[in-house]
Design a protein that fits this description.
It contains five helices and seven strands; from the N terminus they run βββαββαβαβαα. It has 139 residues and is of the alpha/beta class.
């Protein structure tokens, strides 16, 4: 399946790396959530960290988006952590408030690439950290 340039999802070792970009529509949101659910299912119950580069990502806060997201469930039972790299253009507070209130892990958010890398190093081995550095430079 060809994916839009507004997101990319890849797996590396015990991590799922996600890039989110642009101003999303409902269609983009639905497609992304479906692909994310497939990627998590590929883990077959193995624990994972979700590492997200969402600099300049915009998703509307409209009621229809909130209702739609509530209807699509992502299985996070084996998720160990989630780390977001944001910038001043990122619009994700409503996502954080809605979907991380009842997780067994704490969502980590930062606007600093250095802090993002340091937090990755606390969660994953050195080969993952080196991969994340390359991944970020390609984003």
């Amino acid at each position: 399946m060809t994916r839009p340039s507004s997101y990319n999802i890849e797996q590396f070792k015990n991590c799922i790396l996600v890039t989110l970009r642009g101003n999303w529509t409902m269609a983009t949101n639905i497609q992304y959530l479906a692909v994310m659910a497939e990627e998590i299912n590929k883990r077959k119950g193995r624990p994972f960290h979700l590492i997200v580069d969402m600099r300049s990502w915009q998703i509307p806060t409209a009621k229809s988006f909130t209702q739609m997201k509530a209807a699509i469930k992502i299985d996070r039972r084996n998720q160990v952590s989630e780390l977001w790299l944001e910038d001043d253009e990122t619009n994700a507070d409503h996502v954080a408030q809605k979907f991380f209130a009842e997780t067994k892990f704490t969502l980590s958010r930062t606007k600093s690439v250095t802090d993002f890398i340091e937090q990755c190093a606390q969660k994953a081995d050195d080969s993952v950290v080196q991969y994340v550095k390359i991944w970020l430079s390609n984003n």
